[in-house]
Amino acid sequence: LALRPFARLAGGLRGVPRVAPAALGAALRVTPPHRDSSNTALSKMSELSLDTFGERKAVHGVEYVLTKVDQVINWARKGSIWPMTFGLACCAVEMMHAAAARYDMDRFGIIFRASPRQSDVMIVAGTLTNKMAPALRKVYDQMAEPRYVVSMGSCANGGGYYHYSYAVVRGCDRIVPVDIYVPGCPPTAEALLYGLLQLQKKINRERGVLHWFRKNF
């Protein structure tokens, strides 16, 4: 009784024709693809792509070296930030506080200079009036490149307490391009120091030599 299902299966297969092993092997054999002109074109394209890859590899090697050069230049720049003393109002007191012994900005390489030709950062600390705006722009133009601007306090950022005064510029970014905004009225010395540290991070991300190479080559 247990072998009846297998007997029925064997009886059902009696009418199926048997296939010779040689014919079965020939049917299952995989034939190699025929080489035609399309394969030749593909091989030429692959060779061309390899040549292009070699050129790109050489370019990537040059870009790698230039990136390292940028890193060395940025390391030197961010470690020798010399701000221009441009105090306009009460924010300048906190700027002086940041340079005093308690916070000591000199340990970050930040040293105040009185000449714009020896400075690379200008800290606009205080209220900028319409009468003072031309002097601000003149000092900025006398600074050597690359140059940066730190807007310190609400008055320098957007007018602050004197926003609706007819004699006040509503933000020093209308006169010069600003890189770092330090909020507060007035901001503390810690806030200014934090803004200068953010400026160092921004300088560290610059890729001037690499961009010059990609633009000209």
UniProtKB/TrEMBL annotation:
Domain of life: Eukaryota
4Fe-4S in keyword set: yes
Keyword 4Fe-4S: yes
GO molecular function: 4 iron, 4 sulfur cluster binding; metal ion binding; NADH dehydrogenase (ubiquinone) activity; quinone binding
Keywords in alphabetical order: 4Fe-4S, Iron, Iron-sulfur, Metal-binding, NAD
Cited InterPro entries: NADH_UbQ_OxRdtase-like_20kDa, NADH_UQ_OxRdtase_20Kd_su
Entry's transmembrane regions: none
All residue ranges annotated as the NADH:ubiquinone oxidoreductase-like 20kDa subunit domain in the record: 90-199
Pfam families (alphabetical): Oxidored_q6 (PF01058)
GO CC, any one term: respiratory chain complex I
A biological-process GO annotation: aerobic respiration
PANTHER family for the chain: NADH DEHYDROGENASE, NADH DEHYDROGENASE [UBIQUINONE] IRON-SULFUR PROTEIN 7, MITOCHONDRIAL
Family from the record: Belongs to the complex I 20 kDa subunit family.
Protein name: NADH:ubiquinone oxidoreductase-like 20kDa subunit domain-containing protein
Species assigned in the record: Diacronema lutheri
Lineage of the species this protein comes from: Eukaryota, Haptista, Haptophyta, Pavlovophyceae, Pavlovales
